[in-house]
Amino acid sequence: GDRMWHFAVSVFLVELYGNSLLLTAVYGLVVAGSVLLLGALIGDWVDKNSRLKVAQTSLVVQNSSVILCGVILMIIFLFKTQLLTLYHGWLLTLCYILVITIANIANLASTATAITIQRDWIVVVAGEDRSKLADMNATIRRIDQLTNILAPMAVGQIMTFGSPMIGCGFISGWNLMSMCVEYLLLWKVYQKTPTLARKSAKVEASELKQLNVKKESDMKPAEGVQLIIEKDVTGFEPQQEKEVGCAARIAEPFITFRDGWVAYYNQPVFLAGMGLAFLYMTVLGFDCITTGYAYTQGLSGSVLSLLMGASAVTGIMGTVAFTWLRRKCGLIRTGLISGVAQFACLILCAISVFMPGSPMDLTVSPFADISARLFENEPLPTIASPEPEMIFATGMPNLSNGSIAPANSDPEMSPESVPLISVSLLFAGVIAARVGLWSFDLTVTQLLQENVIESERGIINGVQNSMNYLLDLLHFIMVILAPNPEAFGLLVLISVSFVAMGHIMYFRFAQKSLGKQLFVCHTPDPKAAPDSSPPGNTSTV
């Protein structure tokens, strides 16, 4: 249901705004900005509450928001013409704002669900068996890859043979049923795993209260004096506590935001997390940017769909490679090998920039297209929709009519006459690199699971999500600044450079963790180290 909604909301917004990607772009920016700013706060909320409460609340909020959004969208599709005439169209604009706001709430709740289930529950369920943890991580990622394919296909078929309104109704009904099923499954897992009921964050909370008591005692009279005048000041203490509590509540989100980022920086796996975040600064993925570029190079929609299927298969192969490499070489070395494999495959993408058929032209300013449109008061290119999970079916009509239309405007440059060597190498590199990409992603995920203490899992993973969204935002801004096809080759080279920097950061982390043993491959112990060992050393064996 979550994957259906992530895909469908972009399609619905495109349909609502007259086949324009403007609303989709606004939605993507709002989502990315919200997770960037609130990621640490969401993670802190996950840490401070019981696991069952967090999982159930985030699940209910997420699915209820999707259902409500679906109902509002159905009403808009039914009465759009009437809404346009009311209050000079402001009521329809208000509906757009309401849909984007509720959809953003659903995404934030989905982020909380992912943190608590994939980064906390799974660690507790696996116990001390790190091999079991690796297998569970890989299984979850395979399911995620399959749903990324099947969910858009299901929604696309319903909207093609039905209507957007029917699609809204189907997604709302599906989320209602799935919410009940997921709620029951969470309850069963919680009942079968008693350790989920115990959380070390409660101990830390009591310690924080003791610290607060000490701070307050410094500001109050001596203990003997306080006991004497206790009866006289009892009536005034609640008011004083309320004033202090109000100020603390106002400052608490900002303090949590600061403390979350500081704690993330101080983690032993900081460089590994940054390395993963840098992989988001790339155009080498199956979003509307890369697929739209391929469309101008002569690839048909059917070919692109096959390429997307192939990328999903190689992604699943990456999860298999992760489990095998981890058993043979250890967790940290698995990330190093995966990074080398990904970068080696992306070299093909860099080579494709200079091969026949590449439209790259360094004599053309990357900002020529956007400056011309600004001076001519034309709409900006819609190539840079910030919704990574939109497939080509929704973005390509706009892309082919936007800034990259001149690539095929020349009759002599029809899709059949464009050499396919460049685009073939590009997609060969992108598809092959998915094996290393997903293996590396799983490696960093498990490093965060094993090395972050239990009471900080939520806030650290929340900040990690914020870092990922920040780099993803930068990559879309990069495309907005240089949307013309002649600059796409430059974007490819920049993307490969950022991937290289990410893996250099991970290599530095691996070198600091293993030292001279970095290149000594051996079979790790499947069990975790005893609880008495420091958390920073749990995955160095």
From TrEMBL:
Keywords: Cell membrane, Ion transport, Iron, Membrane, Metal-binding, Transmembrane, Transmembrane helix, Transport. SUPFAM superfamilies: MFS general substrate transporter. It comes from the Eukaryota. The keyword Membrane applies. The chain crosses the membrane at residues 20-46, 58-79, 85-109, 269-295, 301-324, 336-355, 418-437, 458-481, 487-507. One of its GO terms (molecular function) is peptide hormone binding. GO terms for cellular component: basolateral plasma membrane. Its main location: membrane. InterPro entries: Ferroportin-1, MFS_trans_sf. Belongs to the ferroportin (FP) (TC 2.A.100) family. SLC40A subfamily. May be involved in iron transport and iron homeostasis. This is Solute carrier family 40 member. It comes from Mohoua ochrocephala. The gene is Slc40a1.
